[in-house]
Amino acid sequence: MFSKIITHSFRFLNRESLEFRLVSKYNTRYISCSAIQFSHKQKEKGYEDDVKNQTENEITNAKEINEPVVNDDTSKEIQKHINKNQQLRIIDRPRFVGKKIIKSEKEDKQKEDDTEWYQYDEEHEKEPEEKSDEEKDKQMSKYTQDIITNSLVKAKNKNKEAFLECIRMYERSSGKKRERVAFVYGAMKYMKEFGVHKDLSVYKKLIEVFPKETMVPTNYFQTLFMHYPREQYCCISLLEQMEDNGVIPDPETETILLNIFGQNGIPLEKFWKMMYWMPKFRNLNPWPVPKPLPNDPLELAKLAMIKISSVDVESSISVHQTEDIEDSIDKTWVVSAMAPKQKELLLKHDKNTPIYVEGPFKIYVATESVDYFILRAEPLKNRKFPEMNTDDVDKIPNPYLDTHTTEVILPPSVHEQFDGTFFAVCATGMSTKDSLLSWIRCLQKDNPILGDIPIIFTLRNVVSEKKNLIDGGIKSEESRKLASGLENVNESVTDKEC
Amino acid sequence: MLVLRALSKRQLSNVKNSAACYQARKLTAQTNAKTAEPKSDLTKDFQTSKLPAALPKKPKREPFAKNLFIGEFDYNFLTYPEPQHVDRYNEFEELFSPIRAYLESLNPEEFEDGIPPHVLQKLREFKIFGARISEDYQGINLLDSEYIKVLEAAGKVPTLGIFLLKQGVPAINLFNKYGTVEQKFKYLPKIATGQVIPTIAVTEKNSGPAAKHFMTTASLTLDDKQWVLDGEKTFVANGLVADVFIVFAHAFQGGTMEKRPETISAFIVDKNTKGVQVVPDSETVGLKGYTTGKLIMKNVHIPSENILGEVGNGAQQLVENFSENRHYIGAIMIAILKDLLNKLTEDNIHRKHFNCMFYETESAQYVFTKLMGAIYAMESVLYLTTSLQDMYENPDVILEMAVTEKFCVQECLNLLQESLWLAGPKATLLIHPYERILRDVYSLTYSEISLIDTNIYSGLLGVQNCGKAYAEGIKKARNPLLFPVDMIKKHFFDTNHLNLHLEEYLHPSLQECADFCDRCILKLQECTQEILIRHGTEVGKKHMDMQRLSDMVSQIYAYVAVVGRASRSYCIGNRNSDAEIKLCMVLAYRMQQRVFQLAEDIKNSEFSNGDHLSRELSKIHFEQKKYIFENPLQRNY
């Protein structure tokens, strides 16, 4: 327990090592930390006991006077507050007494405190939602729970408007000051469901649930010992969720946070770190995708093909409609990518060696996956690689004066890899065997040589089609081949059938 | 400063001594020449007006420019050559003066719609079409240095210049070298008398600088009596007026289009053969009147004896065509620049600038000097190269040719840009000739040659030579751990200095300039070695370094030509030769500075001089295929 507290306080202290040394010198760690910890327990308890008695003013007053005045131990007015507020009384007492009190009065609660501190740690380090969720729900008052259940869980239209309405409801309610942490945690959970998890404006609205100015530390020690830690942690995990969803805050967010936590708040620190890194990461993707991501599979397929074919800058994307192809069964689209270099390789390909249509493989465009297929040949055996000793400077070639080109062995292009030579890639609307046949026919228009090369379809489970075929029975030559392809049996589809 | 110092030091009393030395060296050269018997007069009866035979050629020498890369200097080249015997020189001048007078009287505007027939007729009378054809075939067999004079005179009208160049050089070279006697007798006399205009057809739609990936094919008929040609050629020079085409094509002897033996060959195709069609290319910006065309051949049957050379000779012929016909274009560039200089002088002489005359301002003086200097240097280089061709037996001057072309074209482009502001707003007006000059130069440079290829090619030639000479040393330097002793020796005992004592071969007034050369050649040698040590045989891919080397060697070569010419002029007392000395000093200083700067770039290596980063940036650019940077005011959040 003790060490936990110390490490916890260290985490925020070691920023300013001087302060840390100061604190440790006078051995105030234990008391201060326990005091804070205790006061929060009290606060929570107090909320449930007398909601109506405690106004916002009282709390702020208490805060304002909190430490500097209390330590003077002179004012009578403060004495009143002390009587009213257990929290202040504890801090007010001499240190050794404070220790005692905590131990005696709250002995049975100590274990609970332990776990809670522990949870705070966990919450901050990892799994902020999962572990604390149940705990949060328990702590949540019935009132807040009602708001969340009624407006979020049971909402019919799960959209931004409904979500904002929930926030508005909470803000209108009289007890809004009490359970803001619980409410924010609760609301955060449902953001994705409402499709607002990437919406900056909603996040800002959620942050604004916290009151302005109330939680701004007014003196050195408040800053040092993390003023309103629960709220700060809550806000941090909110910012964390923003970061996970790639939402970059704007300068207005900073103003809001400054108004709530002051410039020494940990959320501000988090905010500045986010603003340092996130814009730097934002444009690093070499294959930028439009935001929001298009839903149309054709558009996605185009993006995927652009991405995968970018290994060769010369490659171009073409979209074909299978309707234009005779004998095609599936009416769909085919996005095909091929580079001029690949055409050359195809021309040089030996006509007696088969080439394969393989797939489907997956490629991701942002969060969506697209199935694609490749046209591949086995790598050339005994391929010669250019051999040149770079030290033989008496044999520098001069290409301008060479009279022969065939003597030169060229280094392999990017399309000739160790696992094969790749001629083309495609994505089709249905990923069916027939659409792939149509693809080959489309390619054949520009590459007549495909007519002379045997092509083998080795596809992995295309479930829907397989079912159809089994149902319909094997009738024609064509469909027999389709079936064979699906069973992973290689069979050549020769010239005419293509 | 330097120039001033040199001027103040100059003592005219020295002239006599060194002039005497010079004369002595000349005399020995001439006595050498006299010992060899002049050519027999067998061909004299063929024609009445025949020039005296040229001097017999001297034995082959080591290449000059290539050897600069290994720090060897042939002093023979510092003496500006006189390629002809004085009799021949005088007679040629006599023959040439009416031609020059006629060519200078031509009005460029007449040539907008092609070469006017009366000009062609006049050229036929002057026998210019046979300039490079031997007397045996009714030509006048001019030396290269004489032919350049003709081209330069014609180059005042760039259209005519390029027309003559394309008519007189590439095709005739091929005929002279590879043609059989029958072919020569069939075609050359007709060409010499101007009845027929020959041209060569090389370029195709997708062919690169090496021009070997042809799609045009030629196959033998079954009876072996005819070749059948199929294909298309673009940018055929003089395409619309030419009557005989030399077409480069794959002679098919089995195999497929993709896998075939390399049998490029040249074929002679007459224009009126069935299946030949010439389509004009779209109009060019400049050089109005000079036409290029697209030659389309569909199932063209030509007799089997129309093959030029042997089957498979084509590649060699192309390489020769690529490497040996380069420098002629310099003559046209010189003519254009001279034209520009005269026009600018005319326009600026009465112009005022505040309270003095414009030509008195320093900025104008600087540009005029620069123009003069450029023309002077271009002339020196061009005539030096052609004279070498004329004087020596089978000379290895391909690097000199490339460097000459590069120097002339580059200087012309730079100077045009720098001097056109002197014309002021007139440069943009259609009634003034500047706009036409600008268009002509751009068409000439961009349609005919690729400066970058020339640069890389010439850089490579030098590096190859250096690689051969220093193979062992460079291998050691590249593997210091295998040869530690050599490395230590190199580091501690290698003294890099070069003292050529060029001043002994020059007029004393040029003593200051002579030192420049030592330092420049030393830099060139060091840089070449350094590049070789860094990149080994991969140097061919380091295009930027190749271009820098090419720049360096062209500056040095130009320097040698300029100094030699100025010294000779001053010694024999040509008009304005004292101005030549001054100009020579200016040029020498600038060229030295340029060489030093280039050497600095190379020494700094690709990681400092920006080559490496340029490669990376360009890669990113091509990945995205557009301008990649955001607007300067772009906000990211």
TrEMBL record, chain A:
GO terms for biological process: innate immune response. Residues 102-141 are annotated as: Disordered. It is found in: Cytoplasm; Mitochondrion; Nucleus. Residues 102-112, 121-140 have a biased composition (Basic and acidic residues). The keyword Mitochondrion applies. PANTHER family: ECSIT EVOLUTIONARILY CONSERVED SIGNALING INTERMEDIATE IN TOLL PATHWAYS, EVOLUTIONARILY CONSERVED SIGNALING INTERMEDIATE IN TOLL PATHWAY, MITOCHONDRIAL. This is Evolutionarily conserved signaling intermediate in Toll pathway, mitochondrial.
From TrEMBL, chain B:
It comes from Trichogramma kaykai. Residues 508-626 form the ACAD9/ACADV-like C-terminal domain. GO terms for molecular function: oxidoreductase activity. GO terms for biological process: small molecule metabolic process. One of its GO terms (cellular component) is mitochondrion. Residues 112-195 form the Acyl-CoA dehydrogenase/oxidase N-terminal domain. It comes from the Eukaryota. The keyword Metal-binding does not apply. This is Acyl-CoA dehydrogenase family member 9, mitochondrial. Residues 200-300 form the Acyl-CoA oxidase/dehydrogenase middle domain.
